Model the fold of this input.
Amino acid sequence: MKQIKYFYLILRMQFSKKMKNLYLMRHAKSDWTNDIVDDSDRVLNYIGHKQARIVAEEINKKNIKFDTIICSPVKRAQQTAEIIKNNTNFEKEIIEKQCFYFSNIKEVIQVIKNLDDNISTPLLIGHNPIWSKLVNLLSKSNIYLDTANLVALTTNANSWKDADTFQLDFIIKPQNLM
Done:
């Protein structure tokens, strides 16, 4: 009888663990028609707006609810984050991280490791080449993130500090849905 109780206790502990789901998204397609505009001031073009709305629709279909959205301070990333926020009923403030723009992987990993453990479903929006390299490093994959691609990664770690390896769950590619 004790063995059965112990088995159920272990089983309950396994199922009570809250998985960490990390969503990484590259900003949507930006406007390159104005060569004078500083890179950080480039905005989304028509296709970029459409891509971000399509990704938001897919997020809703999959019933994903983000705990937080963190993005680069660059306009195209901010616009992408705003479209996701407004089309998924995300009601919190979007957080900006300077290190998501022209940074290195170590800085972005540190942001992930420093996430509050009450957060289980963050969305991070940034730029290539860092975002593709980050996905590949975390999930041992070989993926190139095109504009507005969203990757879902899962880890069994109880704490973000312990989250070193991730399973690639799915990729949303709006280019395939247009």
Q: What stands out?
A: The longest strand covers residues 20-26. Residues 18-176 form a domain with the Rossmann fold fold (CATH 3.40.50.1240). The CA atoms of residues 70 and 95 lie 5 Å apart.
